[in-house]
Design goal:
3-stranded mixed beta sheet; alpha+beta; 3-stranded antiparallel beta sheet; Nucleotide Exchange Factor Grpe, Chain A, domain 2
């Protein structure tokens, strides 16, 4: 009989023990759940409020950045809208200047009233054109005597000169212009060659100034 019972599975007493163990486990789980503190509604509201506040701050920062970018884009659009037009007008100004410079000196000194009036008219036209461009943010570069800067100048040739620091702008072949903070046209220049380096020239200049004071 015992062998048949073992073959057919656990007897009734083993089933009862298993059922009792399951019941005890369920009772323990229920007791643990009963002892666990109930969630505090106030703390839940505080946590939700903090989350909403963080979202609001991030959104406000994004909107502020968008506003600044928009203002900068609008400002740039206003400042540089005439860039292409200004560059074309500089070409016209160059032609007017070339026309004035092509007149022989003896013709200018001849005293011919018609020629004098023509020269004055062309000169006034050029100055009025540059003045109008300046009112729209176009400014002429004055690089002569300054250190060569590839961001604003274009070197066309070198001039041997040992009395000034190396790479000093000595001659302007074609005037350069900027519009706002951008280069409209670099200045075409001739730079010095053979002089001391700029860093070495500065202490020498300061020493000379001190000697003059003494």
């Amino acid at each position: 009989m015992t062998d048949e019972t073992n073959k057919n599975g656990p007897d009734a007493s083993e089933k009862d023990m298993a059922a009792e163990a399951v019941s005890l486990a369920q009772d323990e789980q229920a007791a643990d759940a009963a002892e666990a503190p109930a969630p505090d509604p106030l703390e839940a509201l505080k946590a939700e409020n903090m989350e909403l506040r963080d979202r609001f701050l991030r959104l406000a920062a994004e909107m502020d950045n968008l506003r600044r970018r928009t203002e900068r884009d609008v400002k740039d659009a206003k400042s540089y809208a005439v860039t292409a037009f200004a560059r074309d007008m500089l070409a016209v100004s160059d032609n007017l200047r070339r026309a004035l410079e092509s007149i022989p000196a003896e013709a200018k000194e001849s005293g011919d009233a018609g020629l004098t009036a023509l020269i004055e008219g062309v000169d006034m036209t050029e100055r009025a054109m540059l003045s109008a461009l300046e009112r729209h943010g176009v400014r002429k570069l004055e690089p002569e005597g300054q250190k060569f800067d590839p961001n604003f100048h274009q070197a066309m040739f070198e001039i041997p000169n040992t009395t000034v620091p190396n790479n000093t702008v000595l001659q302007v072949v074609q005037a350069g212009y900027v519009i706002g903070e951008r280069v409209l046209r670099p200045a075409m220049v001739g730079v010095s060659k053979g002089g001391p380096k700029a860093d070495a020239a500065a202490p020498a200049a300061e020493a000379g100034a001190e000697a003059d004071k003494a």
